[in-house]
Prior knowledge:
A: 487 residues; 15 helices; 13% strand; B: 101 residues; mainly alpha; two-stranded antiparallel sheet; 2 strands; 4% strand
Amino acid sequence: MAAYTSLRALRAALESGDTxxxxxxxxxxxxxxxxEPQLRAFVWxxxxxxxxxxxxxxxxxxxxxxxxxxxxxxxxxxxxxxxxGERTTCCSRILEGFVSPYDATAVERLEAAxxxxxxxxxxxxxxxxxxxxxxxxxxxxxxxxxxxAPGGSSGGSAAVVAAGIVxxxxxxxxxxxxxxxxxxxxxxxxxxxxGRVSRWGLVAFASSLDQIGVFARSxxxxxxxxxxxxxxxxxxxxxxxxxxxxxxxxxxxxxxxLVIGLPDxxxxxxxxxxxxxxxxxxxxxxLEAAxxxxxPVSLPHTSYAVATYYLIATxxxxxxxARYDGVRYGYRAxxxxxxxxxxxxxxxxxxxxxxxxxxxxGTYVLSAGYYEAYYKKAxxxxxxxxxxxxxxxxxxxxxxxxxxxxVAFPIGAKTDDPLTMYLSDVYTVSANLxxxxxxxxxxxxxxxxxxxxQLLGPALDEATLLRAADAFQRRTDHHTATPPExx
Amino acid sequence: MARISRDEVERVVALARLSMDEAxxxxxxxxxxxxxxxxxxxxxxxxxxxxxxxxxxxMPTPLRDDEPASPLDPALAVANAPEASGSAFVVPKVIAGExxx
Lengths: 487, 101
């Protein structure tokens, strides 16, 4: 498979018999193995199973029983999504050896659409991070510059799409973990509305913020991927009772009359790279030239978003991660003296530094005497942030912002300073707090590294986001650029 | 200015069922101080009368029909346990035996 072939072209090649699923999957597996020593993006590859699934897809096609646009297409999962009979570690020692007895709904739906899972990708431990360095597997490398981080926490999934290993990969986004690595790796990444995609089988980090989404090279490919994941799932009580939307069928290239808001606060952030801001303004100009109307808007509580996010996310994480007790699954310390000793030692030896840092902060803010001052206050500010979006969307169809304040940073540059790392998500966390959908798409380069344009929309309007993203990609070619070392 | 004493850090670390050595505790204290100082920006914001967010989207209470469904096979449920016996998880003894008093 060439580094960038659209799903539409791959599907046409499968339909015409120019290629087979077995050939596509074989090519993906070979490229994954060839690039792995440099990228370190996969946690595991599923060679025999994937080839068997691909052969089954070819057999279905021969019988005229194709399941959908993804039938026979190789895809990758983030290693915090469970697949029956396969390992899921969240790149944490504490889940060492865990083999899932069931499929995540997102995985089940991808496979029901015919997609072939070739492997699982690296992440920051339990999806806590912005660089994919905090992983017990070691850091994943950015395909555009192997000395730089791919972003995180879904850096592995972003990297394998950017390097042309698979056309589609799943990720999860709690504070920007799809959009930020998509921006730093030069691919499309979409986080849908909270509740659009069932979280059943996604290992929980911060349950009121987590959402599954996809990485692809184009908005059209992302639409094909996302639409097959959506829809109500009774196994997740936060799953929205909405039917799956038609996303790919609404990409008509037309943005005339669409009103795009530019939030003042996102373009006035201290420390943001002027080259990133310029590229985003130029991209918005492109959409304006295509007929969209652009107007300034204000999201006045934006500067409180990162603090709010870290209080809520760590509180929920400390609660969710209480289940890792060395009893039911995963790592258990040796030679323990008592049940209490088993808990303390298994957790202390099993969790990495960043996860412990967040558990401790979360435990602190939820502890007696501090709940009102921190957690409740953060949930009140969250309401103000949501209201900002509601007010902005009264006058706009979508908002355009940078996805990240800067391009990909060198590996190790931020690992000793958690606050600086947290600020990597300054433009993305608000969408998680408000539950609204967001997409990042490549819109230019600085120092040879990709820049991301973020589009945010009102709840349930992924279709408009992808329509605008697709319209932009019909007029530009940033998304077709490939990393020089991995053409 | 955020203040968090070493005793408080030790108490929270124990509440979280974690143990840390001296160096880790020192690091945890300075990280907590830095992060709490940062989140203090929220204190300046007037949230009087603002309801805390409980759900980001208005959703009816999810209900499902009261129909029996198959649970996870108990053998599968314990398959990932570090130590299991039949369909039970094995843990260290929590009640002292007769011989121990």
